[in-house]
């Protein structure tokens, strides 16, 4: 089955076309442009590079977050629109899980970190076990200082990835902690496609009508609105 995958959880705009065990095309850019400007051209380009038409696509996959609220909404809206219009299944994939999946390193803890604003990061921990990638610590919002403290206390070697690793530049890291190379720091649609294909092979898919982003925390707009309208909480 051919899958069109979309990744817009961070500054990266990434679109891929893949099938079981084979990546046909991928367009990934971390340019200073909005996803509303880049996503549709990237979808068109990825499909043209793969030499596929809309009739060839068997499913649409999308990164669900956590991450940029605006980026997630744009990516999911596009994915849902395509899946509905093309009449194909849609599969949502955890952004943090897809980032961890790029590091098949048995015996190590893979810790993806995505900017949660105000010096905080969305953090989770994964390990490769007998059954493949396993989540060992669920996603939380953690301060940057706490990230290093918690990782340093882990009994295994730790690989950090994600857009927040730039915050550790010039800082002394615990002896068991390494930062992924810049080529593997940010999420990619190719990995989203791979995880979606795994789910599809098990007969799993999501409902195009009620699939929602995974935000974890509320937006600043929601918090500000509640502060200005305390009577609404009554």
Automatic annotation (TrEMBL):
It holds the Pfam family TsaD. GO terms for biological process: tRNA threonylcarbamoyladenosine modification. It comes from the Bacteria. One of its GO terms (cellular component) is cytosol. SUPFAM superfamilies: Actin-like ATPase domain (SSF53067). Residues 31-225 form the Gcp-like domain. NCBIfam families: T6A_YeaZ. This is tRNA threonylcarbamoyladenosine biosynthesis protein TsaB. It comes from Schwartzia succinivorans DSM 10502. The lineage of its organism: Bacteria, Bacillati, Bacillota, Negativicutes, Selenomonadales.
